[in-house]
Amino acid sequence: MTVDAPERELQELFPTEVEYRDLLDRRTRRARLFQAGCMLALTIAVVALATLLYTIINDSFGLVAVVNEREPADIVAELGYDPATVALIDVPYDRLVGLLEATVGTGVGRRLEREQRFYPDRLVFEPQPSWDEVCSSEEPVPGCTATPRDQANIYALVQERVVQPDIVATYDLVPSLLDAEGFEAQVAAGFEAGRFEDYTPEQIRIEWRAWFNPTFLMTPSSATPETAGIRTAILGSAWLVAITILFAVPVGVGAAIYLVEYAKPSRLNDFIQTNIYNLAGVPSIIYGMLGLAILVRVLEPFTSGSVFGGTGASDNGRTVLSAGLTLGLLTLPVVIISAQEALKAVPNSLRQAAMGLGATRWQMVRSQILPVALPGILTGTILAVARAIGETAPLILVGAASFITVDPTGPFSKFTALPIQIFQWTSFPQEEFQRIAAAASLALLILLLVLNAGAVILRNRYARKA
Amino acid sequence: MTLDEKTESEQTPFRKRPRPGETMIRGFLFVCGALSIAITVGIVYELGSESLLFFQDERVSFIEFITTTVWQPQVGGFGIWPLVLGTMLISVIAMVVAVPVGLASAIYLSEYASKRVRGFLKPVLEVLVGIPTVVYGFFALTFMTPLLRAIFGTSTVGFFNVLSAGIVVGILIVPLISSLSEDALASVPDSLRQGAYALGASKLDVSLKVVVPAALSGIAAGFVVAMSRAVGETMVVTLAAGASPRNFDLGQDSLFGYILNPFESAQAMTGYVAITASGDLSYNTIDYNSIFSIGLTLFFMTLGLNSLSRRFVKRFRQEYE
Amino acid sequence: MTPETTSDTVEENRPPTTMEDPMEQPQAITQTGTERSGSVDPLDQPSVMRTEAMDVFYGEFRAVKEVSMGFAGNEITALIGPSGCGKSTVLRSLNRMNDLIPTARVEGRVLFHDREIYDSDVDPVEVRRRIGMVFQKANPFPKSIYENVAWGARINGFKGKRADLDDLVERALTQAALWDEVKDKLSESGYSLSGGQQQRLCIARALAPSPEVLLMDEPCSALDPIATLRIEELMLKLKERYTIIIVTHNMQQAGRVSDRTAFFTVDVNERGQRTGKLVEFDETDRLFTSPAEKETEDYITGRFG
Q1: Residue C304 confidence class, pLDDT cut points 50, 70, 90
Q2: Is the ipTM of this complex over 0.90?
């Protein structure tokens, strides 16, 4: 191979064999470091997720040191049942009401009854005439129209008023499993430090507590963390989701159909499309402000139900309806975009075949396009809804009630929602509130897991058919 | 039937028949689409008009709003910069966390991982973005803050601090960066990689010097989207960053000791709105109106970022499609 | 068709860990002139690269079987044959580009200056530095013309300063017959060139790190006849400096530019699997005028393929 002079100079500027070997080694080492770094990054992300889940589960179960005013087992025995086989929650409704009657004063009892009745057909604490008077007055109490209490409800009341558990110290799950004595030592140390002045060591029982348990899901909210549950929150969220879907899905799918099947390229349609992308990126709190300003305030006659003549549980616009519509507005862009994707995925050959046979556009859309795109649209909807369930900021703005124990009864009720409940409980410093916040978070995560898994299964099932 | 016997409409086919049903449906669908414009109009109008009321109040001036650095409504301080500072501190910390983690993960998934590993890890990352932000807030308060206080000492790290919120928001936005970056990296044609390998390049050379630069606008789009999300994040900052605006004085306060100190609390714009709204809020008070002016600022910030990101995406698509 | 390995002069007992510089190494004579069975016989002169009974598998599927051939220095060797006969696979095995496919596997020997390139201690990166490649469809980087050419040299440790790099880029573009057309727009994007120019850019890019061997995989198939002609002229000039191995489906092209030609075809076994095999390898003139194998003759005269 002949090499000219200037070329030889250039050749010499390339590394020699030895130099190249060194260079290659260094490059290989750097490459390995880089690859390790990338794997590390991925690991960090996975570890972060794992840590979050671990924290929540760790906080949701564990040992507690509790003092009961009256032990549930004693109460059950007093009522004449065998504590070994019958739990307090299983005691018949009437007996529990009777117990409550015997325990709380009339004033408290009337207040409870005005909040929510015990029986649909008879009153317990208040004489009928005064009840009727209150209910037909200008400002009737919630109990006049709310559905009566049920087993879970009365059990929660009994817990709160009769058993009156006071949890004085809590422990995480993993330490509870591995080092139970550590907790006892902690409690004992607490006594030394004078933290539990109101009680004597004998009163304190150390027992296992699952903050996240089926009763937790069925018990309404309460001021004391020991007896609080997330039923009101779950029902509130359910109402919200229903309203969101009822609004966002028809409108969203309709808009998507318009944009994909009907709209011809024009300035206006381009603008609509860009606008939708913009809306999808707007922070959720701004939707909250929109809801507050327009739905809650301006449209108050509609959203509070007063225009329909209902007396309503609330007299202002801070209702489930406002919140549901706000969430609907929030999820609308996302529903539109994912429905568009689903529609665009339908092969054009179908459209051409249908139109070629002389179908009108709507006929084509309704009988050819929609059935094919439906699974994709459904998946997108489920995912959008899953996102809406977790939204908190807009609900804060729109006025989710800070403390409410009554289940929502209709679109015009005051409400709370699962994320709101988590938010509030997290803001309180006491560790018991931290526990129920964790339990509620666990409930929310499980719910979302189910929804997302459903979406994935749906997508896979129909992808295989296609 | 002979030609004469057919009716007129049958004799002259292809004449347009009026179809009222079609028109109605089309109209309905158009309304659905146009509703989105109504939403935007609504947002801008509401934010704008309430902000106007806010600025018309005698205690507030627009100049004061955009130039002063004290936000203390009780004493009439209405400068927005402390809140913006809070938001930016948290967002920057979040990006510092999320960009390396997200981008490196994307490179690994796109260039190194086998299909099986990718099929497993991608959904795991997606889970991160599906967790409600309030749960992240809980996590920040109950895990991250105590951790930071254990590492750096309880005297350095406040109970509410910006670092904890920033890190958690960073974790939250990692999937945004990794997902968009990975899509961009995967769209780079394989022929480019082949050409590079044929020149004697190692995998590192190919990934960092050919593929990433080729995918740059797509990756940049991901960064901007993530930043926008961090700016608009509410629950984590409300729970973990505290409720006291970091009022400062550029002339007097130390830059790193106070103004940019990540260990102290600093309320963000979204945090202020959330706290104010969850308290007693009556219409037509100055507090009520103030949230809208903050909201307007936030709206423009995220709008700007999102438009920027879309421009990046368009440029990226132009190169490869 | 068994390869005639009378080569006890192949030095297998020396375990070199380096790819030694051929200038300092006495060339091992691998073959004496053997009888022309018209089969896979290596050369009657020292080879820069050769394969010995090379098989290439994709998973369980054998794409190419028992290829034994040698490539002479400063010559153009063409691989021709019908589609699916594995010629591209063979080409890509020569610079270990098949490594990029997870299921690919090579058995047999591939030797570059008597060094087995598939040895476990050989880094494929280094192999590709010495053996460059030009692809079927031009694939310049989304960088400037200058950067396209300079990049390969840079990552391979070019030590020169900016002025030296400028010289290198100019040299490579000149060798690729592109310099005059782009010398005033070196900072423009590689994509601003026409298809034929882009392919010449890719050739310049491949030449910049000074490889010894240049593999070209159907380099003209995406180009118009004029651009094709220019690249063929280029090849004839390049062989003065480099060893070129080209895959082409265009027989006439092989006839025009190559010194030696290898004809591959497809073998279909009982199960219907198609495996490529080398039929005949000879000097181009001889192969085209008086092929030894009937299959070769059938292909050349157009009776099939």
Answers
A1: low
A2: no
A421, A220 contact by CB (below 8 A): no
Q: What are phi and psi of C259, to 5 degrees?
A: -90, -40
Q: How confident is the model at residue C232 (pLDDT cuts 50, 70, 90)?
A: very high
Q: Give the CA distances from residue A431 to residues A59, A266, A442, B237, in Å, rounded to whole numbers and listed in that order.
A: 10, 59, 17, 21
Nearest to A280 by CA among A338, A324, A342: A338
Across the strands, what pairs with C95? none
Residue C128 domain flag: yes
For residue A309, what pLDDT is reported?
61
CA atoms within 13 A on the CB side of B276: 28
Strand partners for C116: C111
**Per-residue confidence (pLDDT) for residue C10, from 0 to 100:** 36
Burial of B308 (C-beta count, 10 Å sphere; 0-12/13-18/19+)? middle
- Measured in angstroms, the CA of A282 and the nearest CA of chain B are apart by 7
Q: Which domain holds residue C238?
A: 41-138+214-300
pLDDT per residue as tens digits for the range C161-206:
888 899 999 999 999 999 999 999 999 988 899 989 999 999 999 9
Residue B244 token pair: 């006291």
Return the residue in B24, B35, B36 with the most chain A beta carbons within 10 A, the one to mutate for interface testing. B36
pLDDT of residue C7: 38
Q: What is the pTM of this model?
A: 0.82
* Residue pLDDT, tens place only, A64-114: 888 888 888 888 888 888 888 888 888 888 888 888 888 888 888 888 888
Residue C91 lies in a domain: yes
CA–CA dist A243, B178 (Å, integer): 33
Residue C12 has pLDDT above 70, yes or no: no
The amino acid at residue C34 is T
Mean pLDDT of C271-294: 89
Domain count within chain C: 1
Would you say A369 and A262 are in contact if contact means Cβ atoms under 8 Å apart?
A: no
Candidates A332, A242, A337, A232; CA nearest to A291 is A332
| Cβ-based interface (< 8 Å): residues of C facing B | 95, 97, 100, 102, 125-130, 132-133, 135, 137, 139-143, 151-152, 155-156, 202, 205-206, 209
- At C24, list the tokens: 């300092």
Identify the residue among C21, C128, C156, C207 best suited for mutation to test binding to A, counting A beta carbons within 10 A and taking the highest.
Answer: C156
Name the residue ranges covered by the structural domains of chain A. 5-61, 62-218, 231-465
For residues B160-174, one letter each, b for 16 or more C-beta atoms within 10 angstroms of the residue's C-beta and e for the rest, the string is: bbbbbbbbbbbbbbb
pLDDT (tens digit, 9 = 90+) per residue, B208-220? 999 999 999 889 9
Q: Specify if C25 maps to a domain.
A: no
pLDDT for the residue numbered C5: 38
> Would you list the DSSP string of A444-457?
HHHHHHHHHHHHHH
Query: Is domain B80-320 classified as CATH 1.10.3720.10?
Result: yes
Closest CA to C67 of C245, C270, C232: C245
Residue C112 sits in a domain whose CATH number is: 3.40.50.300
Domain spanning A231-465: CATH 1.20.140.10: no
